[in-house]
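Input record, target 12 of the design panel.
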């Protein structure tokens, strides 16, 4: 499914719910295969493990030093070759061409996604009404009773909010059903509370911190099976709960007991962190970034239209941000999300995976983590 198809799918999923949300067992996201695939990390300026600190919300912030890596999908990636949704194994169009990214400013990023408990503190302090609540539409929910294993299982429902996403959560789970605008409002509140500028990370910062020096498809290597140690993604547990949904993504190792073991969202920090101490950069929930989304952004950013095999010959972009505008934004404020979710398979949950959502929309599979400017 390419980016345009996914946008159409999201729009069609806003039709009136065909099933009572009260009977919804759990929401889900079908994997979008139009994703960024590989960001080959090179030339890291500082590879030592950063030191964390804890703020007043109990949020562990990891200090990240400047450095350089390569962003974008790799031509001939063996994990994409012969896949029915790609051509020649070159990856989706929005993840080409590869280019070097240089980050010149230090920043801090949360070790985990923002939790339900942390978001609750924000709501108590401010009285904030989320986009899903104030719009009356609710968030995009998964309707397991709909007799379809595709995007038609999605629908907005007024009862689908961060308080009731359709599946059980504790204060330790990542908050979902929050829009990009909600995430920005949270960061603004936290900035005042902590007397330091908090914000959503750029997608360049997000991938740099998520990789923590890894140059492989996943933190654990190039084998898809390594992802389960680090991330809560579609696996045998989800397949058992909803037959065919995980298998549809052509995921292997679906026998009982294999995978990460979580059907829906997992409490943050339950799986293995990366080398810099960040958790859940594979899966759990898609994470909002500050950047606007444009499928042609990498091409326009680099001016390159060919694939390069030697990283040293790639264009160098310093402190990149998303486009100021694009033709897509005539129809909405599309923002980048990164990392995959509990419903996406390994293919869609790699270090370089990306997709998008409209800034005022909320999804049962999307949350965020915060970044902080250097003090």
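The sequence produced for target 12 reads:
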């Amino acid at each position: 499914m390419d980016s345009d198809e996914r946008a159409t799918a999201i729009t069609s999923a806003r039709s009136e719910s065909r099933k009572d949300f009260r009977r919804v067992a759990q929401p889900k996201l079908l994997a979008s295969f139009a994703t960024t695939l590989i960001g080959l990390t090179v030339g890291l300026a500082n590879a030592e493990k950063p030191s964390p600190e804890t703020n007043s919300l109990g949020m562990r912030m990891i200090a990240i030093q400047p450095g350089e890596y390569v962003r974008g999908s790799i031509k001939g990636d063996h994990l994409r070759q012969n896949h029915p949704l790609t051509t020649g194994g070159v990856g989706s169009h929005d993840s080409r061409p590869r280019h070097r990214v240089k980050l010149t400013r230090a920043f801090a990023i949360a070790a985990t996604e923002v939790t339900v408990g942390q978001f609750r503190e924000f709501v108590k302090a401010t009285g904030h009404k989320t986009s899903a609540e104030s719009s009356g539409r609710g968030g995009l929910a998964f309707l397991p009773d709909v007799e379809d294993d595709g995007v038609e299982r999605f629908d907005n429902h007024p009862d689908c909010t961060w308080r009731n996403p359709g599946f059980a959560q504790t204060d330790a789970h990542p908050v979902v059903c929050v829009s990009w605008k909600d995430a920005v409002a949270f960061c603004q509140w936290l900035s005042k509370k902590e007397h330091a500028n908090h914000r959503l990370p750029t997608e360049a910062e997000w991938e740099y911190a998520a990789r923590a020096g890894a140059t492989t498809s996943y933190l654990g290597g190039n084998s898809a099976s390594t992802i389960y140690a680090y991330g809560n993604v579609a696996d045998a547990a989800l397949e058992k709960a909803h037959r065919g949904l995980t298998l549809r993504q052509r995921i292997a190792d679906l026998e009982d007991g294999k995978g990460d073991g979580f059907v829906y969202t997992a409490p943050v920090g339950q799986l293995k962190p990366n080398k810099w101490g960040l958790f859940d950069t594979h899966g759990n929930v898609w994470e909002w970034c500050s950047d606007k989304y444009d499928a042609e952004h990498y091409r326009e950013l680099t001016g390159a239209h060919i694939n390069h095999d030697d990283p040293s010959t790639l264009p160098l972009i310093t402190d990149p941000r998303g486009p100021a505008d694009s033709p897509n934004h005539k129809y909405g404020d599309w923002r980048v999300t990164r990392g995959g979710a509990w419903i996406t398979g390994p293919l869609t949950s790699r270090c370089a995976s990306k997709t998008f959502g409209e800034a005022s929309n909320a999804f049962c599979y999307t949350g965020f983590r915060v970044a902080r400017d250097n003090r």
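The chain has one domain: 3-373.
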